[in-house]
């Protein structure tokens, strides 16, 4: 009897050990897609447009204007830090204005909402910090922004969120953009004249007869130049409820659609690839990833693409710390498959792929 109990205990230990081993092996074999993508994501960041940075006093509201005309009304009293503290230090605002496919591509900002293709009327990134702390809007508050009107098509407000792989997805709101009744030129300042006036002041300050300008005067002049409005038509103000990625978008409504697949040459020995589909005739961009270690073994490619669209398929991968890239221009046909052929690429060659002309 004692021998039987000992054998039973030994059998339980063996089975437990096997189960633990199986769990460990399964866990070890789980694909790490983020690690695979990181070298490509880091490489693409080299080509991103640098953000515009504005400094805002926490003591009073201020109107800020981006290079493309985006007009932002910052009210410090409407802001708090993420942990609910009042804003006391200077506010730093980061702004990106992406108005064409080139910029969308370089900043990895595809125009897709839950798998549905969008046409963009401008994508923007807006963020505020103070004293190194992230800011947010107080409960019930909003931030007024006037976005550039880049198209005559009707557009709606979308908020963007990136998933674990860094893919940007746009969530629709019920808020539509409306045009101003007339092109308002009130408060417009001629940029060339403003710069000319400041150059004259600087010339006077540097002359023997002039007094040197102090730091506050210099900062005031720089702020004046930065806030000079450019001549571009804007939408009427919208009230943003959150910071981050914002898009003026509309869904692409076409009936004649197809799926676009891609393939690779065996000689390229691909493991993981980032792929973009850039539309030349509309302001749209789609993104896709390929992983040979994907356990599902299926790669649908790009779905619901309008037949007849002029596109450029751009793919790249990092292998042995070297960049390999491919670009293919095509007019979409039903059931089409594009073979991707990689060649080693320099930074300059890769950057040229962004130019759709």
How does this structure look, described?
27% of the residues are buried. It is built from six helices and 21 strands. Strands 1, 4, 5, 6, 7, 8, 10, 11 and 13 form a nine-stranded antiparallel beta sheet that branches. It has three domains: 46-182 and 230-251, Chondroitinase Ac, Chain A, domain 3 (Sandwich), CATH 2.60.220; 191-226, no CATH class; 255-352, Sandwich (Immunoglobulin-like), CATH 2.60.40. The chain is 22% helix and 37% strand. It has 357 residues and is an alpha+beta fold.
Topology:
Blueprint lengths: L1 H27 L4 H12 L7 E5 L5 E4 L5 E4 L4 E3 L9 E8 L2 H6 L5 E2 L2 E15 L2 E5 L5 E4 L9 E7 L5 E9 L14 H16 L8 H12 L11 E3 L3 E8 L5 E8 L7 E8 L5 E7 L10 E5 L3 E10 L2 E10 L5 E4 L2 E2 L2 H6 L5
Parallel strand pairs: 14-20
Antiparallel strand pairs: 1-5, 2-3, 3-9, 4-8, 5-7, 6-7, 7-8, 7-13, 9-12, 10-11, 10-13, 14-17, 15-16, 15-18, 18-19, 19-21
């Amino acid at each position: 009897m004692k021998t039987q109990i000992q054998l039973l205990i030994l059998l339980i230990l063996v089975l437990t050990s096997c189960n633990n081993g199986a769990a460990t092996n399964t866990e070890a074999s789980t694909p790490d897609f983020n690690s695979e993508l990181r070298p490509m994501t880091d490489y693409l960041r080299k080509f991103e447009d640098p953000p515009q940075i504005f400094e805002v006093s926490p003591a009073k509201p201020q109107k800020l204007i981006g290079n493309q005309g985006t007009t932002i009304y910052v009210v410090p009293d409407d802001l708090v830090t993420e942990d609910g503290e009042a804003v006391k230090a200077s506010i730093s605002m980061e702004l990106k204005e992406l108005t064409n496919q080139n910029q969308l591509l370089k900043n990895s900002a595809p125009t897709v909402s839950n798998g549905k293709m969008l046409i963009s009327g401008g994508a923007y990134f807006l963020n505020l910090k103070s004293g190194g702390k992230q800011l947010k809007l107080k409960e019930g508050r909003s931030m007024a922004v006037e976005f550039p009107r880049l198209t005559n098509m009707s557009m709606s407000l979308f908020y963007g969120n990136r998933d674990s792989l860094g893919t940007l997805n746009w969530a629709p709101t019920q808020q539509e953009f409306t045009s101003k009744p007339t092109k308002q030129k009130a408060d417009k300042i001629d940029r060339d004249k403003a710069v000319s006036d400041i150059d004259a002041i600087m010339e006077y300050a540097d002359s023997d007869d002039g007094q040197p300008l102090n730091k506050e005067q210099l900062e005031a002049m720089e702020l004046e130049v930065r806030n000079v409005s450019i001549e571009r038509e804007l939408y009427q103000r919208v009230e943003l409820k959150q910071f981050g990625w914002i898009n003026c978008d509309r869904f692409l409504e076409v009936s004649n659609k197809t799926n676009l697949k891609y393939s690779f040459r065996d000689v390229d020995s691909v493991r993981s690839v980032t792929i973009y589909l850039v539309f030349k005739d509309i302001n749209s961009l789609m993104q896709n990833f390929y992983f040979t270690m994907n356990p599902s073994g299926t790669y649908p490619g790009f779905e619901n693409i309008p037949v007849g669209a002029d596109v450029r398929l751009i793919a790249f991968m990092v292998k042995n710390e070297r960049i390999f890239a491919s670009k293919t221009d095509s007019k979409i046909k039903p059931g089409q498959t594009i073979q991707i052929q990689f060649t080693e690429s320099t930074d300059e060659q890769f950057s040229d792929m962004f130019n759709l002309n």
